[in-house]
Design a protein that fits this description.
The structure holds 2 protein chains of 2 kinds.
Chain A: E1 2-3, H1 15-23, E2 25-26, E3 35-43, H2 45-56, E4 59-61, E5 73-81, H3 82-91, E6 95-100, E7 103-108, E8 114-122, E9 133-136, E10 142-144, E11 150-156, E12 160-164, E13 168-169, E14 171-174, E15 182-185, E16 187-188, E17 198-200, E18 205-207, E19 215-218, H4 220-223, E20 242-244, H5 249-252, E21 258-260, E22 273-276, E23 279-280, E24 293-299, H6 302-305, E25 316-321, E26 328-341, H7 355-367, H8 384-394, H9 399-410, H10 414-422, E27 426-438, E28 442-454, E29 460-473, E30 479-494, H11 532-537, H12 550-556, E31 558-577, E32 580-599, H13 604-613, E33 615-616, E34 622-623, E35 630-654, E36 658-684, E37 689-690, E38 700-701, E39 708-709, E40 716-735, E41 739-750, E42 764-772, E43 786-798, E44 808-812, E45 822-827, E46 836-848, E47 854-873, E48 882-906, E49 909-926, H14 933-939, E50 957-960, E51 975-977, E52 980-982, H15 985-991, E53 998-1002, E54 1007-1017, E55 1020-1030, E56 1033-1035, H16 1043-1047, H17 1080-1087, E57 1093-1095, E58 1098-1109, E59 1117-1132, E60 1152-1160
Chain B: H1 2-22, H2 24-32, E1 39-40, H3 45-52, H4 55-60, H5 66-70, E2 75-76, H6 86-92, H7 107-125, H8 136-161, E3 174-177, E4 190-192, H9 193-207, H10 223-236, H11 240-253, E5 279-281, E6 297-298, H12 301-305, H13 312-317, E7 318-319, E8 329-330, E9 344-345, H14 346-359, H15 363-375, H16 391-405, H17 412-419, E10 429-433, E11 436-440, H18 453-459
Antiparallel strand pairs in B: 2-6, 3-4, 5-9, 7-8, 10-11
Helix pairs in contact in B: 3-8, 7-8, 8-9, 10-11, 10-14, 11-14, 14-15, 14-16, 15-16
The chains are: A mainly beta, B mainly alpha.
Chain lengths: 1161, 466
């Protein structure tokens, strides 16, 4: 006899039981016997009922939906009345039973009133966990916490609710009537720092366990680990696949130059997109106060980044600001720190020759008459030593006096003066205070930050104030209104003039014996731009003082820039239906930069200009086209952008097993940059007035050169407009929490390309799959409890503003002769323009060993750059030598390995390790316009900022001339002509085609990463980060090979190792130095010879951090720390003790030491 | 409560979606915004006029200059030869190869063609521009100006990269590619020398009526300039009657000669501080380094000494620097910005007229014209008229004075090419550098420079055999 019950069943034990229950609920009838005997200990109700049924012949109906509510049955009965037994059993159960004829019908006790349970899920640091699973155990109803960790679920009293989150121990609680707001703090499964397991794409937050794409995250602990005024540098050594290119000119100028998983473009912008709180950040990234940033997500592959469309090709860095939380008491965070920096080591630069050797060279050249044509010519710059020698020869200086002066100069070292006057210890102070909290209907976050940065270069400093306020208001259920305001102001002084001291003329390096002050500290003049004797005597000819005194320049410099940024956000989010949200966001950003570089009449710049333009008056004396008063150079940049977005989000679990998470929306943005610059003559700084009438049109004969020029005016206006209209969508479907399938697509339309192609609107898309293998029932590797596989495929893209679909003209001012405005052809039209695209295929594996002793991920990816902008040669008779269009392709592959391990977890002592290893190879596959041999030698490494592509080779490569040993008799370097050694440098250079060049290897590290060890004992934590960069090459500098070229600045300490006599070739590779005339071919050959290329591989101890936490757990915290940055190179492959991670001529980043505290209460 | 919120919110959604999708017109406007305000598409007559005002492209130094270096106007000191670019050095030594393997581009080839491209952009854009009746004249002038510039560029290229004009062979020898559109994809190949001259001359004649008789500034073409240029071209072709016709036509409207006695503000490279009054059309040679390096380029002292002491050109054209009389330096350019002037000036037209008259047997007419010119060059009151026994002698005198007057004006190379066709004027050029003697016999194939290899390869051209 069967009783049919169509019910949803939850019976997680055995498959057979489940199947049986699905089909029906049966109990067969046996002869009636109303006495029952039972001896059950924690048995299931079902089994007990089965036994009763067997003994009594009663059928029973136990609906599957009721089973979960049944409690284990413990009963002992010996031939007892059925009714009595049933009463005993069901007294203990939240169930009713009804004894009908031959049938027991079991139902739930009259349902308790629904209880709305709300609360928040926090991690051990008290931070909201996004997308924690909140499940009513019996019913299976699931909800997930929101981005603040908050949740709300409809339950009934008595329901058991489990709260779980991967990597954390689940928490169980029982629902009671009138439950207050639950604050649930999950403990990590282990004490290993768990990464932020919610990733943010800027459009949505995803639990990482359900993400298919390649994301890297930095939680607040990692964001706060380093000390810096900018946010970007905090990524270094902590982000897999992200490389800081320190050896480029951009880096040497202090701009951040980073690449995520290599390079995906040749000539377009190569820097990742920065997203702050959901919108691209247009302003200067260095203005964001890191103390306001909660966490960072880096989007690396197509599935992660393609939602950003045409700006996603270089990866995306998503910054999320700190926010308040609902129903949270006011908390105050106060962080302060101070960083002292050592002076840069000016004695590091090998391109220096000591004064004595240098003077020997000058004397030697002087004797040959080398300088004779220059001496006395007002336009020829000659060195102090040459001037002394000339004076001695002319008899205006006695031999003794000359010897005394020269021997004094021999003892000088200009680096001492530079070090003393132009460099100093850096000092950075950083303070930040924030308040946050929230009530039932609102939350808020306010912060104020102040940074004082005294730069290493004397005269330069940078101060920043940041103010932030954000407020969320929840007026009714389901509605969230948000507003935030950000204000930054940065004041920068750039008054250091160390870069201007070079003498000019043919000299490109400061004389090694130049001094800047006398014993009394008075500024001394140096040779600058003109013949020193002419400049010295210029005042006698009626000119203004024409001497350059570096110290006075430093003192008189007045170059200030003020940057102000305002950002206003407003938004609303409304729950239209359960799981379906509509949000609208708007952001206005305005950044105004005002630069004022004031040159008073005390500065050389002004005096020089006045003198150059002074026109002899017929009656004697001068007239002054450039008036004898201050000059103000102004430069204003104004950036303003509006961005708005409407987005529908859907996040729902359907029938328990199916989870859908989707967004779709549209976005509009407009960013306008306007630049204005101009020069004001006759400017009086005190009254801020200008009296001068300047003749900008006439040509004036310049003193003393005789050339003709107009009075320079930097008057300029520029306006750039970026308009985007974009549609985007992203959907992920997860089945049984095991299988996730994702798609995303985006269409961008912009004003960049001109009309035609732009409107074709090719969508960029991605798709991805993820499989949580460890959730499969057949999976039984208990040592590897978590194993997930991922694969994605899709397209990112890159914008290039330099080409256009139509022929464009650009208006210029001042035609060559008539000075009228005129047009140039800016670019020939290219109707076939397309976006640059990057196709990315990514395979990932996430794993965690038992107890997360070791956890991590491995990702392998393949990239293909398609339609990259590149030059193709044109027959020059077209009017152009090359065509700039979508002609190039690149390919690349690599992997990112992340391993976190808990090495020791014993009592109070913990030791954890984080290892990041990345490998990336980028290769040019198609490029039609190869450059000349010399271009690959000089710029193949791309460190100067431009790429010189060569099909079949890495994007950045070091090339050189094959070279042999020095010759025995003459110490000449040897290269190869037709395969045999030769010193015919002209033939070597002209005969070496690009294909014949020796390819040393890649110029960018192809394997790199970091190893971070963290030790903690009780309240102490010590961590140290090693950064390694492997398998790449760099070119050393060396000495010029002729005395005249050395004298003009081709100095290098290699001079000491020069070949001087036969046999020296056995111990040196530095060729013999020759007398002029310089053989430039010999010089060029040596400069780019194989012998001057070294391996760049090195391991650096990046930093050490020691912290003491007064209350390591709990809401109130106080952490005091010390932080040593740029600690030093531990190992390097090159034997010359060079830091390969430096741009030519740059100084190693000096060590810095910080102390500070972070507190929250 | 819920209703009251939903209403406005829904309104908002509709609004935003409306902005995104409904208003196509607005959307197009939004996406048509100029990315860079300084950029423009050539859409109006004013845009094209501004393009024609690009004096960098059209006037300051667009003209091929290798011929000037290869001609016998000046010498280079041995020591500085290695410092010159290979194209300069090879041209100076009349090498078979001019461009080293590593040199892929030649400004001599590229800059005139850049001028051609600019002119073609204008000529291509003109048909798409609607103009009112009042603008019609301006429209025609823009077109004529572009045609003039293109013809100028073609002429300079033909003088450099094709063999000299020879009536009998011109139809069968390769000239230069005649690019008549701005389409980067067209590959016109080399037209015959004859076709090149036909095109140049017909474009000039087409352009002439729409140009002003005299231009407001010599950087702009005019009817006078067209006549002057045609005189120069016919002279180069050896068509002396036509040359005389256009020289006369030019001088009828423009006969001003600058009296050198009035020059008083020389620069270090230039004869005066502004346009000379005899400047008809202003253009300059490519500024090769050989002109700029201090003291490296000099004038043969014998030639320098051939100027009469009362001849102001001796002091206005030359300077003895650093007490080195063996290296007279040329400082006589008509370009006040320091480039080497090779434009059209009245003195050249006087010399063309005189030469053509002499060749026509008009001794007196020829000598009269020459004397008019020279009088403006001599110290006031010192000039004594030159005389000649007959027309042939007059021609000799005129050619001698032509070289002295038009030194370093970019004309010597064409003159050599032209006069070598007449055995009595043919010369074998010779230089000794580092003890090695280099020669260039008359009518040598090296009188046409090789076309840069990149053009040969990508443009599918035949190379000049040298």
């Amino acid at each position: 006899m069967y009783s049919f019950y169509k019910e949803k069943l939850v019976r997680p034990h055995r498959l057979a039981a489940v199947l049986m229950l699905i089909l029906n609920m049966q109990v067969s009838a046996r002869p009636a016997n109303q006495k029952v005997s039972l001896a059950e200990q924690n048995s299931t109700l079902l089994s007990v009922m089965e036994k009763i049924s067997d003994q009594t012949g009663f059928d029973f109906i136990l609906p599957a939906r009721v089973i979960p509510f049944a409690k284990p049955v413990t009963i002992a009965a010996q031939q007892e009345e059925l009714a009595r037994v049933l009463k005993k059993i069901f007294d203990e159960q939240p169930l009713n039973y009804e004894l009908r004829e031959k049938m027991i019908v079991i139902s739930r006790k009259s349902p308790a009133g629904p209880v709305k349970v709300s609360g928040e899920v926090l991690d051990s640091a008290g931070k909201g966990l996004n997308s924690a699973t909140v499940q009513i155990r019996a019913k299976g109803t699931v909800t997930y916490s929101d981005e603040h960790g908050q949740f709300s679920i409809a339950a009934e009293a008595g329901d058991q609710v489990s709260v779980s989150f991967i990597g954390y121990q689940p928490v169980l609680f029982t629902v009671r009537e009138g439950m207050p707001f639950q604050s649930i703090r999950l403990k990590p499964v282990t004490a290993v720092i768990a990464g932020v397991t919610v990733v943010s794409t800027g459009y949505q937050n995803l639990p990482k366990e359900r993400a298919t794409g390649s994301f890297a995250q930095l939680n607040n602990e990692l964001v706060s680990r380093r000390v810096s005024t900018d946010i970007v540098s905090r990524l270094e050594g902590l982000t897999p696949g992200l490389l800081f290119n320190r050896n480029t000119s951009a880096s040497s100028r202090g701009n951040s130059d980073i690449s995520i998983r290599g390079t995906n473009t040749l000539f377009s912008n190569s820097q990742p997109l920065i997203v702050l709180d959901g919108f691209p950040f247009d302003g200067d990234i260095s203005n964001i106060n890191p103390n306001d940033i909660e966490n960072i997500t880096i989007l690396k592959d197509a599935a992660a980044a393609s939602i950003w469309g045409v700006r996603s090709g270089n990866g995306v860095i998503v910054l999320n600001s700190k926010k308040g939380k609902r129903n949270e008491k006011l908390s105050v965070e106060l962080n302060a720190n101070m960083t002292a920096s050592a002076k840069p080591d000016l004695f590091y630069n090998p391109a220096f020759l000591n004064s004595s050797d240098y003077i020997d060279i000058e004397q030697r050249l002087f004797k040959t008459g080398f300088y004779d044509a220059q001496i006395g010519d007002p336009l020829q710059v000659t060195s102090p030593v040459v001037n002394i020698l000339a004076a001695r020869r002319a008899g205006t200086l006695s031999a003794e006096q000359a010897d005394v002066q020269i021997s004094l100069l021999r003892k000088q070292d200009t680096r001492r003066g530079l070090d003393k006057y132009f460099y100093r210890h850096g000092l950075l102070q950083q303070y930040s205070l924030n308040f946050r909290g929230g009530g039932d209907q609102s939350d808020y976050y306010f912060s104020a930050g102040e940074d004082h940065n005294r730069a290493l270069l004397a005269g330069n400093q940078n101060n920043r104030i940041t103010l932030t306020g954000s407020y969320n208001f929840y007026p009714v259920k389901g509605l969230q209104l948000s507003a935030s305001v950000n204000y930054f102001q940065t004041n920068t002084a750039s008054n250091n003039t160390a870069g201007n001291i070079r003498p000019g003329g043919r000299y490109f390096t400061v004389f090694p014996y130049e001094t800047f002050a006398d014993a009394a500290g008075n500024a001394l003049p140096v040779v600058k731009g003109l013949n020193y004797e002419f400049a010295r005597d210029a005042q006698q000819q009626g000119y203004l003082d024409w001497l350059y005194r570096p110290l006075d320049e430093l003192r008189n410099a007045d170059n200030h820039t003020r940057l102000t940024e305002n950002r206003i956000n407003a938004g609303a989010q409304y729950r239209l239906l359960p799981g379906l949200d509509l949000s609208i966001k708007y952001q206005y950003e305005n950044q105004a930069t005002t630069g004022n570089n004031y040159y008073s009449t005390a500065t050389f710049y002004t005096r020089n200009l006045i003198n150059q333009y002074a026109q002899p008056a017929p009656a004697g004396g001068f007239t002054y086209p450039v008036p004898n008063s201050g000059i103000l150079q102004q430069n204003d940049i104004n950036l303003s952008s509006h961005r708005a977005r409407a987005q529908l989000s859907y996040d729902q679990t359907i029938a328990q097993a199916h989870r859908i998470n989707a967004i779709a929306g549209a976005e509009i943005s407009s960013a306008i940059t306007e630049n204005r610059s101009g020069t004001v003559y006759g400017y009086d700084k005190d009254t801020q007035t200008s009296f001068a009438q300047i003749d900008y049109l006439s040509y004036f004969s310049l003193n003393p050169s005789g050339g003709n020029a107009q009075v320079p005016t930097s008057l300029g206006f520029e306006k750039f407009t970026d308009h985007y209209l974009s549609y985007f969508g992203n959907a992920a479907y997860t089945y049984l929490d095991r299988y996730t399938f994702s798609v995303s697509g985006r269409i961008d339309r912009s004003n960049l390309f001109g009309v035609e192609t732009n409107h074709k609107s090719v969508p960029l898309y991605s798709t991805g799959l993820a499989w949580d293998l460890s959730k499969e029932h057949f999976y039984d590797l208990s040592w590897l409890p978590y194993l997930k596989l991922r694969a994605t495929y899709g397209y990112n893209a890159n914008v290039n503003k330099t080409a256009s679909a139509v022929t464009t003209l650009a208006q210029q001012s001042n035609a060559y002769y008539s000075g009228v405005p005129y047009n140039i052809v800016n670019s020939p039209g290219n109707p076939e323009l397309r976006w640059e695209k990057v196709r990315v295929t990514n395979f990932g594996l996430d794993f965690s060993l038992k107890n997360t002793i070791v956890s991590g991920s491995f990702e392998y990816y393949l990239k293909k750059g398609i339609d990259l902008f590149g030059s193709s040669p044109l027959p020059p008779s077209t009017g152009f030598v090359s065509f700039y269009g979508n002609t190039a392709t690149t390919t690349g592959h690599g992997f990112d390995l992340v391993i976190n391990s808990r090495n020791i977890f014993k009592d109070h002592f913990k030791w954890t390790t984080g290892l990041l290893v990345s490998h990336v190879i980028d290769r040019v596959t198609v490029y039609d316009s190869p450059g000349a041999t010399i271009v690959y030698l000089a710029a193949g490494d791309g460190n100067g900022g431009s790429i010189t592509p060569l099909a079949g080779q890495p994007i950045y490569g070091v090339y050189s001339f094959r070279s042999g040993p020095l010759t025995h008799d003459t110490g000449d370097p040897q290269g190869y002509v037709n395969g045999s050694l030769s010193t015919d440098y002209n033939k070597i250079i002209s005969g070496t085609t690009v294909a014949d060049l020796y390819y040393n290897g890649p110029a960018r590290p192809t394997t790199f990463g970091s190893l971070r060890n963290t030790f903690s004992y009780k309240n102490w934590t010590l961590s140290a980060n090693l950064v390694f960069k492997l398998h790449y090459y760099f070119r050393r500098t060396s000495t010029a090979l002729s005395y005249d070229q050395i004298a003009y600045g081709g100095v290098h300490k290699d001079y000491a190792d020069r070949w001087q006599k036969p046999g020296d070739e056995r111990k040196t590779t530095v060729p013999a130095i020759l007398m002029p005339p310089a053989n430039t071919d010999r010089q060029i050959f040596y400069q780019y010879a194989q012998t001057l290329v070294d391996k760049g591989d090195h391991v650096r101890l990046q930093d050490i951090r020691l912290a003491y936490a007064f209350r390591p757990t709990g809401k109130n915290r106080l952490e005091v720390f010390g932080y040593l940055n740029n600690a030093g190179i531990l190992w390097r492959a090159n034997k010359h003790h060079l830091d390969p991670d430096l741009y030519t001529g740059a100084y190693p980043l000096p060590r810095t030491l910080s102390i500070g505290f972070n507190s929250r209460f | 409560m819920r209703k009251t919120i939903t209403g406005p919110l829904f309104g908002c959604i509709v609004c935003i979606m409306g902005i995104f999708s409904n208003s196509c017109k607005k959307q197009d406007d939004f996406l048509d915004a100029k990315p860079n305000q300084a950029l423009n598409v050539p859409a109006t007559l004013a845009d094209l006029q501004l393009l024609l005002q690009n004096e960098e492209v059209f006037n300051s130094q667009p003209d091929p200059g290798l011929g000037q270096i290869a001609s016998d106007d000046f010498l280079v000191q041995d020591e500085v030869l290695p410092d010159l670019s290979s194209a300069e050095r090879n041209s100076y030594l009349w090498s078979k190869e001019i461009f080293d393997a590593s040199v892929t581009q030649s400004v001599d080839w590229n800059l005139p063609y850049q001028m051609v491209y600019y002119a073609n952009v204008i000529l291509d854009a003109l048909p798409g521009i609607k103009v009112t009746d009042q603008e019609k004249a301006g429209y025609e002038q823009v077109k004529a100006t572009a045609l003039f510039y293109r013809a100028w560029a073609f002429y300079g290229l033909v003088q450099t990269f094709a063999m000299p004009y020879d009536k009998d062979k011109a139809a069968n020898l390769p000239g230069i590619p005649l690019r008549l559109s701005s389409d980067l994809n067209s590959r016109p190949g080399r037209a015959s020398i004859a076709d090149c001259y036909v095109r140049i001359i017909s474009d000039l004649k087409t352009a002439q009526p729409a140009l002003p008789e005299r231009a407001s500034t010599p950087v702009k073409p005019s009817q006078v300039a067209v006549n002057a240029l045609l005189a120069r071209i016919y002279l180069a072709m050896g068509d002396y009657p036509d040359a005389l016709t256009y020289a006369n036509a030019c001088l009828a409207k423009f006969s001003t000669l600058t009296d050198y006695n009035t020059l008083n503000s020389p620069g270090t490279t230039n004869i005066d501080q502004g346009f000379l009054s005899e400047d008809i059309y202003h253009s300059c040679l490519i500024g090769y380094a050989v002109y700029n390096i201090r003291r490296d380029m000099y004038i043969d002292p014998i030639f320098y000494d051939s100027y009469d002491p009362n001849d102001l050109r001796k002091s206005k054209f030359f300077k003895i620097l650093d007490k080195l009389p063996q290296f007279p330096r040329f400082v006589g350019s008509y370009d006040y910005m320091g480039q080497k002037y090779d434009g059209l000036a009245a003195d050249e037209i006087y010399l063309i007229k005189a030469e053509c008259q002499a060749r026509a047997g008009d001794r007196d007419g020829a000598m009269g014209v020459l004397n008019t010119l020279l009088k403006a060059r001599w110290k006031t009151g010192t000039f004594v008229d030159y005389t000649a026994a007959n027309a042939d002698e007059a021609l000799l005198v005129i050619l001698r004075e032509r070289k002295k007057e038009l030194l370093l004006r970019g004309l010597g190379w064409t003159d050599l090419r032209r006069l070598n066709k007449e055995p009595k004027f043919a010369v074998t050029l010779q230089r000794t550098v580092g003890g090695v003697i280099y020669t260039l016999p008359p009518n040598d194939p090296r009188y046409a420079f090789p076309i840069p290899d990149i053009e040969i390869k990508l443009g599918g051209l035949t190379q000049n055999q040298r």
